[in-house]
Every structure is written in structure tokens, then in C-alpha cells.
Amino acid sequence: MTALTIKTNNQPRELKSIHDFSPADQVKVREHFDWMDTEELESSYSFFKYRDNFYHLSEFMNLTSLAPSELKEWHGYSSDSYFSGILVRLVDDNESVIVATYFS
Predict the structure, then answer these.
(1) What gap in Å lies between CA 81 and CA 79, rounded to an integer?
(2) Contacts of 101 by beta carbon, 8 Å cutoff, 6+ apart
(3) How many helices (H) and strands (E) does the chain have?
(4) How many domains does the structure of the chain reveal?
(5) Across all residues in the chain, what is the average pLDDT?
(6) Are 77 and 71 in contact (CB under 8 A)?
(7) How far apart (Å, rounded) are the C-alpha atoms in residues 11 and 24?
(8) Which residues are within 8 A (CB) of 57 and not within 5 positions of it... i.e. 6 or more apart?
(9) pLDDT tens digits, 67-92
């Protein structure tokens, strides 16, 4: 089995509402999440920015007890490819996330 590499700076990122972003970033969030209706988009506090990309917690699959041991401390993942993606760990009473990249 190929080893999994996980890279993070362990810095919590606050989960935000679209209104917490700058006006320019709000436009980007609306474009990226055009599949959300206006009410859902404006009432959600599950957005965060990582490496100049915007994410919403709904984009992440929940990691279960069947996950490999390297992923036990993480709550969710979003794949970029078969070999890489983003991990999230909820912290601060689920008001922030720690984000990491993974690859094999």
C-alpha cells in the first residue's frame, strides 16, 4: 500500500457566512456555489477559504471508523483526484476547521 502524505499548518480557519467575506470574494463565492439557492447561500456559516479557493462543508464526505489510520483525526475529505484532496477537522465547537492536503 502506498503511504499517504498529509500536510497542514494546524491553523484553525473560522467558518464564515458569505457576508463575512470582502465584496470581491462574495462575488467569487456566489459564482462557485451557484448551485445553492439564495436563502441557503446567505444563511450558511460553513464557508472557508483555503489556498485562494472557497469551500463549503457540504462539499466534504464524512470519514467513518473504516477510514485508514492516517485519517482517524480528520472529519471529512474532498478529493481533487484519485491520489489527492483536502481534509478538514472541525474544532472550536464546530466553529472553525483545520485544513490539510493529502496525496499518495
Answers:
(1) 5
(2) 6, 7, 8, 84, 85, 86, 87
(3) 2, 8
(4) 1
(5) 92
(6) yes
(7) 24
(8) 15, 46, 76, 88, 97
(9) 777 888 999 999 999 899 999 999 99
User: What is the domain extent for residue 78?
Assistant: 5-103
Q: Print the SS3 string covering 3-18.
A: CCEEECCCCCEECECH
For residue 75, give the 3-state DSSP assignment. coil
Query: How do residues 41-50 score in pLDDT, each as one tens digit?
Result: 999 999 999 9
Residue 35 has φ and ψ, to the nearest 5°, of -80, -15
Amino acid found at 9 = N
Q: Which grid cell is 55? A: 469551500
**The C-alpha cell that represents 49 in the structure block:** 477559504
Could you identify the residue written with the cell 463575512?
A: 20
